Fold each of these.
Amino acid sequence: MKKIIFLAVIATVLAAPVFAQSGSIFPKGEVSTVNNHTGTVWLTELNKADSLIDCNIATATFAPGAKLDWHIHPAGQILIITDGTGYYQEKGKAIQVVHKGDVIKCVPGVTHWHGAAPNSALTYIAVSTNGAKNKTQWLQRVTDAEYSKASN
Ligand code: MN
């Protein structure tokens, strides 16, 4: 009996890192075919804004090195990082390295981009209120020179 308990403990300890690295609790979703990013991005819609609750919620996973173009959310967005390591940058400011567990406020009207670090995937839940007036304005690509300024 002691041997069985011992084996169960060992199995749990060995399995823990596997679960810890398994990422989001939500499905990874479909590969994005929209031309507003570089690299592979998977998207899953979790809630669509409607007349009762005006809030869009989606989860996005970025392959290492994948990133969105510069953009603006007219009514803002909150990013809840659920897995991996990535970058968040507002125009004119330094790149912030973001990790699982971080919550990032993308303030209304501020030009910014976000994506994965070069050596890590990134998954987050994006919460966008005021769906009707919060249509993202897509701007220029993030250049290699801009992306490479990060130090993680
Ligand atoms: Mn954004």
Amino acid sequence: MLSSSPNSSLKLSDSIDSLPGVGAKTALAFKARGIKSIKDLLFYLPNRHENYSIITPINRLRPGRVTIRAKLNHSTSRRGRRGLSITEAIASDTSGSVRVVWFNQPYRLRNISGGHEYFLSGEFKLSNKQFSLINPYTEIVSDLPVNSARIIPIYSETKLLNSSMIRRAMKAALPLANRIKDYNPRWLVQYLKLMTLAQAINQMQYPESEQKLKLASCRLQFDELFPILLANELSRQQRELARTLKVPFKLDIAKEFVSRLPFKLTDDQRKIIWQIYLDMQGEIPMNRLVEGDVGSGKTVVAVMAAVMAMSEGYKIAFMAPTELLAAQHAQTIKRLLEPLGLADHLILLTGSMKEKNKRYVIEQANKINGAFIVGTHSLLTSGINWKDLALVIIDEQHRFGVDQRQQLQKLAGYLPHCLSITATPIPRSLALTIFNDLDLSRLVELPIGRKPIKSFLTTPSDIPDFFRNLIEQLSNGRQAYVVCPYIRPKSDYDQLAVESIYQMYQKKLPKYRIGLLHGQLSAEQQNKVMRSFIKGEISILVATTVIEVGVDVPNASVMAIYGPERFGLAQLHQLRGRVGRGEYESYCFLILSDNLEPPMRLRQFIATENGFALSELDLALRGPGAIYGKLQHGKRMASLMNFDDHGVVDLAKRGAVSFLNRGENVINYPGLAKRVKLAQQLTYLN
Ligand code: ADP
Ligand code: MG
């Protein structure tokens, strides 16, 4: 074990430069990576490990990763082609000799001496027609090797901070790992046969064996999953104890609604609405998420659920992410309520309404029996009386956060039925872990008659073609979206900022009206631009991703996305869903910045129309950390999490159930409580 005598004068909270061997310059490099204290360093986990623990006699070397224990002689250094520095030496043990080569490590010449014995760990392979040991980690033989002759940690490196520097600092810090306090209950750690956190950090950084490394990684994965599953279990238990308004199912109401639709429901829609009716009949509040691509018919399902509650004289609240979307939804919903004679039950309330208007609308909302109230998230605090609120529908959010649920409970006096609808699919494995307190419904089947959107990768040499296509569409009366990854240029040469692209389009297409839309314009300006686009007064809308969710302009047939490498697949798919909403053939162009081979995920994107498949692909290619890590308020989680490892998921589930069955309370474990709280705030993935 590396934890020899702990340096008793050091504390975990001490600054990184108090470690022996870490000077001011190295400390700065660490700080640039967010590693300020010794504790931060200990929690800086390797990306992977390489096992160099088996020492092979030189005469038995086979190609591959090897470690030898040898003396070094005849060292030389020279310049190779293109200025490459080549340092060579001959390594010998009692069994034989081998050539050792280091590329671009001229300092090796100074550091090796004939008298010492070294561990050399690296790749044994053919180089310059001779089997050699290439670029080995080289370290004087000692009881505590850091870089060789063991399972060694490989960290993500920067120019100023390489793995070897991190390992040296880690070695100095590791004796303090034993002081790391476990934030989980001791009995739980023992009951689940987990390593302690201190052991896990020790073994993760410098594993004694593959077996211990596995146990360490299992413990750390557990720590990422357990708070999430505990939060879910808590929310499930609370929900099951809560009572709500029952909404009895009435066949004639459902039949009437369906008979007035201008189309037939898909089988998926039918199944899901039936499930929702069953949920709403019960006294336990519903907590259901309906996922489905743009245009899969989620709104219809939600309105059908609402109609049942309205027939009992109950209120419905529908919350959209923006005022514009709220207004659009209100229109769609009104159209669906009209044939039933319920159009005047629909109420739209937005923050930008005039005071007088607002007061009138609130009065109406309180007066109408069975009001369907549409607005943004501020709806709940608007002063409407929320007694008799039976159903809350939330658009483009995966689930209700704890705060939202508490607010609802306070306003209504009970927890209403909650329905989330979203076009951003959650990969199945994440749904079963991070969102396992939700009942999940998927609209996979698209209504018939949807035309697939033709998608293209456009390299700089394809740009003239792209503009020809665009102009053809515009001259046929269609409209186009042009999406850019950010508002301001990131450098002087930056072509991808929304302002630069806006100007470029104005110059290039002077005949057409072009609008600019991004989040730094006032809400009023944004609304104005969006309205002119909806009305068709603007032909091209150059925008950031503010147009991502929900905007519905059936006449738009072109979506051009600049810098597509900067977007996740789910987001690209959302953007693509802005077109193809009408009768017209529609196109999506991913405008690449160079002529290089485009990344695999973009090639997959243009070949796949299925949002669920894309979400799985995104998970496989980017990992769970990229998908939900950032959402934990900047704290990157799931760095190691591999959801295929169901062993850990089950362990965390068992842990959560045992914890609650024992009558434990997170309040007694502040470290755990903090993590549970973060998990409870997670309302959507991106
Ligand atoms: P989403 O909310 O999932 O984006 P909507 O419910 O707004 O989808 O439906 C998109 C469009 O498709 C609407 O114009 C709606 O009337 C229509 N639609 C919904 N369900 C069907 C169906 N089963 N068959 C044909 N058209 C449908
Ligand atoms: Mg919709």
